Amino acid sequence: MTLLRAILAELLALFVDDSRLALQVLGLVCAITALVKLAALEPLLASALLLIGCICILVASVLHRAKS
Amino acid sequence: MPTFTALSSTVTAAFLGSLVEVVEAFTIVLAVGITRSWKPALIGAGLALALLVGLVVIFGPLIALIPIHLMQFVVGVLLLMFGMRWLRKAILRAAGVIALHDEAMAFAKETDLLTRQAAERRADYLAGLAAFKAVLLEGVEVVFIVIAVGTARGLTLYAGLGALAAVILVVCVGAILHRPLTQIPENTLKFAVGLMLTAFGVFWLGEGLGADWPGADLALLYILASLVAVSAGTVSLARRATPKARSL
Is the pLDDT of residue A10 over 80? Predict the structure, then answer.
């Protein structure tokens, strides 16, 4: 049971280390998907926004941790 | 027919990502082998490998049933979360905000634990379990990397070969040196893999959303280049932003 819990915890930790970062990435993906599906945003433009959004989230997350 | 860019980036990402994980698993198996004996170390590692192969054989074919755009989207999201997590940590380590992973310290910690357990009646079982857990947990990450970078373009076999090359390299070098592989520049590797996996994540998510990237697979290179530039800049920004640097 302990081993199974360790494996599940490791699986979750594969994607979520800093919960704030994970939530921001998921939020960005949801927002961009919604813009493509509901507001007919051009997929290539959406992909460019995705890259810019990921970069902003990464920089903000690193600087937040560095300052704390 | 896969392009050279797709093939080389897939194999490189799988090889480097697996190398980092295999080195970590090797450290624990080596600690068990040297401190206790090689029998529980090899049985534990072997059982974990068998379980990993079993999981891949059972769940691998199911992935082929998922529609391609949905798979690209899901794989893209997972790669983005996995890659950005590695990249963030590697930037923080490169900037000196958090400590570097120390393979020698991990080896010493495991050796110390095994020595304290040596008097117990089930010492062999505990030693084997430590090897089993290390190989299984690090192996799960290797399996994820192989499936994630390989599946969306049907390059799982090539990604698997990249991972296998990493395993063979670590086992051969480790068997010759007979000590933890502390000389491997782990953070540099994690930095490179984090960059590559994040680039793959953006690329696949874009494809999953229906984007036709200019230059097709070459888009991976300019996504990667922009991530490299931003990450390098973020390292120096983070260095200056730490409270220690600000107080100087």
Answer: no
